[in-house]
Amino acid sequence: MMSEFLLEIYGEEIPSSTQDLLELELKRLFEELLKRFDIKFDKIITMSTSRRVVLFIKDLPKITKKKINLIKGPKVNSKESAITGFLKSNSLKDTSQLSKKEINGNLYYLYEKQSGEKKISNLLEENLPILLRSIRWIKSMRWGNHEDRWIRPIKNILCIFDKKVIKFSYAGLESCNHTYGNYYFGEKKFKCSNYVTYRKQLEKYYVIVDRLKREKKIKSKIEEFCKRKNLVLDINASLLKRTSDSVENPNVFFGEFDKKFFKLPEFLIENIVTDKQDFFSFKSQNKMLSNNFCFVSNLNNNKKKQLIKGTQNVLKARFSDASFFLNEDQKIGLRERNSHLNNIIFYQNAGNLYERSVRISLGVQFIYKKINKKINFETDYLSFSNADLATELVNEYPGLQGKVGGYYAYNEKFPKEVYQAFSDQYEYEYSVNYNNFLTFILSITQKFDAILGYFISKKSLKGTGDPFGIRRAALSIIKICLEKKIDFNFNELFSYLKKIYQEQNIQVEMEYETLYEFFKKRIEILFEESGFYTDVIRASFADNAMNPHLTFLKVNKLQKFLKTKDGISFLQAFKRLDSLNEECQTSEIDENLFNQKEEMQFYEFLCLIDKKLNNLGKECLLDDNSIVNKTTLIINNFFDNVIVNDDNMELRKNRKKLINHLHKALKKSYNFSFLLN
Amino acid sequence: MLSFQQIIDNLLNYWKTKGCLQMHPYDMEMGAATFHPATALKAIGKKPWKAVYIQPCRRPSDGRYGKNPNRLQHYYQLQVLIKPNPLNSQELYLESLRSINIDIKNNDVKFIEDDWESPTLGATGLGWEVQCNGMEISQFTYFQQIGGIDCRPVSLELTYGLERIAIFVQDAKSIYDVIMNESGITYGDIFLENERQMSFFNFEFASRDYLYKSFEFFEKNAQDLINKKLPIPAYEQCIKASHTFNLLDSRGLVSVSERQSYILRIRSLVQSCCKLIVNNDE
Fold first, then answer.
1. Of B96, B236, B85, B191, which is closest to residue A141 (Cα–Cα)?
2. Cβ separation of B87 and A153 shorter than 8 Å?
3. Residue contact B106–A246, C-beta within 8 A
4. How far is B77 from chain A (nearest CA, A)?
5. Cα(A509)–Cα(A494) distance, rounded to whole angstroms?
């Protein structure tokens, strides 16, 4: 006979962001537990609401299977003490309880340990508290005086197996066979001994435990409303999940806000309605924002009027606040506002935001020039990319920086390319279809300047967090360069901006090396995530340049090359070169000391490859298959025929110089030494 | 209808019947009642503590020259701190709402995830923003750390936004229409002009040079006092530095990026104060 297992942990409001993670984690731990004890199970079902997480297993046996474990003992001819020790550790009296087995020509004692049948209920009792304590939390908390953790304080643990309570303690609570209905409907306590009654009782007491059912209920109410009012709602999946996770008994309420607030920009209204309030907003058939909105609550319809009035008031208050800022902002234009940036410190000892906006404008123009792109508008517009940082709206809604600047620039009739770039410059990455090139260049320039400013002010980067957002900024720059194929050397931008900082009387003590190492680390992270090997990435940094696009091409070529026959042969040859490579004081090679033809061949090739690598430009050594194969051949010929460590110290030194010279030359393309470990 | 004064009385009385000691406002400018030593310094260490008090708070950048019906740069918070947190913390809180005529059966009271953090205090907690029909009325937090020190045991912190609660309870259109007591005097009669004038100060006239200099001065004072192992006056200097930073912020003198540096400077001082206090307790 099989039995049901039901676990419900009930407590204070569990945030939506952690409900499904908790379900997954519980499921994982139960699967591990059941597999460890070789217990057959069909399926583990998990569910959660704002106040409970549930785990259900339909068919579990009542007892575990008998099991025989074979334990290998000492050799039969071992010392007496070793045999006695083995007997003792297994609570055995003498060797008659052991069998013997020959393994690899030696005779060993073997103990066939039988583990008896065990009641699953006992096993669960012993293991459940351990299991709950081993949950891997992303976020959790303690409460009161104990050390057990959960997402929020828990109040009840229902745990039933085979209609009986599995008794254990966790977080100061004893498990039991009862639980509670919806908190907002009196939190009715009820007993249950199986899953069917449990579900029935929950429904009776206003709890829909299944997330999909809750979402479906919300969705159907919204769709019905849209149909009736001829409106459109592209249901935002994460908002739907968030709202359905915030209740146990979803009801949807519809309200309207005053149309006078349409004077606010649409992005601001949507930010307030959706992000700040978790309400749904609607659009008309012609895609204009509607003044209808809806929200989800636990309460039933008989409280409708009061709820809608309350929420309309809240929206009104928020919109009034936003209107206040908008009115204040519109008293002066972006041009005048830009001068206010003079009063805002960028970073301590790194000047003010006006100086930053000048650098950004010049930086954008510098990149355009370097990559041979033409600017099709008055460059003067670029000086206002940061003007919105002095606005009241951004001060109140920092997350809308950029969007606000774009909006004001649009109002002041800036070219579309410019206001769109202002608006989108802070995005982390851009979709494939997004194609305003100015946005990409503005975005990478302002982020690069933010990183420079940080290092100028703070000197170094400590800790693993990113309170100033510069790690994220660097990742964003790299991503944009890769995805939009922007072939640009950031060391040039570094030198250029450094010069401007100095012209602005800002002391720059940082060296390129600091920045290079910082970017290298971020490139490594991103490339590793894309499936490239760390050694391959590191080998590709050889030329000290900071061009994410080119580095990506190099890494890609190297990783592919190493999987080819030529690649494998080349690496073997390079290994020979590397093993005898020593740093030489002088690289002057004396041709008169050559006494074998392979030395001359090596030298002639060295001159050729040296020249080639010095003039590579944007090409890569691996682009020319013939030269790569010739390198392999020359190295192998040399080592097959020439004794490097000759007794004649002059000859030896000269040969070492040859090796070192080629090693150094190759390093201009890739640092192959990273691939040898 | 409950007046502003009655709301305060009812909440204070409710928590006093639950064993809380009524403390009084701290005589310094602060952005939140959490800064009051009855919370910030009592939530660390092992000794049990239960307190309730009103704290006038100043958040200069929230001023609106008295023109916005819902935003103030000076307002009142009612604060409860209970260590260790009671097992029925949520029930106690909801019961306290009933004492001011807010019932969860008739109102949509929601606990919205809000992992609270006071960056300057180096304090973190898990809990919720409590919304009543969409309006935030309280902050409900289980403290996990103060000044970078783990709270053992954990304290419950409840912060009631008194003006917002009054707007809701009285169904007022504006904070300035809130009735203060049975005489009919309104919040606006008392505070409107104050809001207007203080907004001018906060946004336009607070001296830039004085603010920069005084921040440095308070920071240095705090460090000197920490070196002399006097964490309580040192902590007071941190409160002053924090308020000065808030003014710098409202004057728009600090960029988003540099804000973080100021916050970290205050936090590091508060952490030193808390460490000294914990060491003294032990």
1. B85
2. yes
3. no
4. 20
5. 13
Domain count, chain B: 2
**Distance of alpha carbon B231 from alpha carbon B227, whole angstroms:** 9
Q: Give the pLDDT band of residue A585 (cuts 50, 70, 90).
A: low
Residue of A nearest to B104 (CA): A184
The distance of Cα A518 from the centroid of its chain, to the nearest Å, equals 18
List A157's β-bridge partners, or say none.
A9
Partners of residue A55 on adjacent β-strands: A7, A46
Contact A351, A504 (CB under 8 A): yes
Given an 8 Å threshold on Cβ–Cβ distance, is B134 in contact with A314?
A: yes
Residue among A91, A166, A183 at smallest CA distance from A132: A166
Rounded-to-10 torsion of CA A611, A615, A621, A623: -120
Residues B38 and B174 in one domain: yes
Q: Assess whether pLDDT exceeds 70 at residue A208.
A: yes
Over residues B203-246, the pLDDT tens digits come to 999 999 999 999 999 999 999 999 999 999 999 999 999 999 99
Residues A41 and A170 in one domain: yes
Instruction: Specify the 3-state DSSP secondary structure of A242.
Output: helix
Assign 3-state DSSP to chain B and report helix, strand, coil percentages, each to 5: 45, 20, 30
Q: Which residues contact A228 (CB under 8 A, 6 or more apart)?
A: none
Q: What is the pLDDT of residues B137-194, one digit of tens each?
A: 999 999 999 888 889 899 999 999 999 999 999 989 889 999 999 999 999 999 999 9
Residues 43-82 of A with CB under 8 A from B: 50
| B192 in Cβ contact with B178 (< 8 Å) | no
Q: Are strands A52-61 and A44-48 parallel, antiparallel or unpaired?
A: antiparallel
**CATH number of the domain bearing residue A567:** 1.10.730
Question: Are A666 and A631 in contact, with CB atoms under 8 Å apart?
Answer: yes
If asked whether residues A498 and A518 sit together in one domain, one would say yes
Does residue B17 belong to the interface with chain A, where contact is any CB pair within 8 Å?
no
Question: Is residue A202 in some structural domain?
Answer: no
Window A:241-270, CB contacts with B under 8 Å: 246
Q: How many helices (H) and strands (E) does chain B have?
A: 8, 9
Average pLDDT score over chain A: 90
* Residues of B (72-91) whose Cβ lies below 8 Å from A: 84-85, 87, 89-90
**A150–B contact, CB cutoff 8 A:** no
**Residue A517, SS3 per DSSP:** helix
Q: Is the peptide bond before B233 cis (omega within 30 degrees of 0)?
A: no
How far apart are alpha carbons A78 and A513 in whole angstroms?
63
The contacts found for A76-79 with CB under 8 angstroms, 24 or more apart, are A76/A100, A76/A107, A76/A108, A76/A109, A77/A107
Nearest by CB to residue A12, choosing from B90, B134, B256, is B90
The parent domain of residue A103 ranges over 67-115
Please give the residue range of the domain that contains residue B221: 208-281
- A663, A657 Cβ separation under 8 angstroms: no
Q: d(Cα A306, Cα A389) in Å, to the nearest integer?
A: 39
Q: Is the ipTM reported for this complex over the cut 0.90?
A: no
- Answer for the pair B74, B100: CB distance below 8 angstroms, yes or no: no
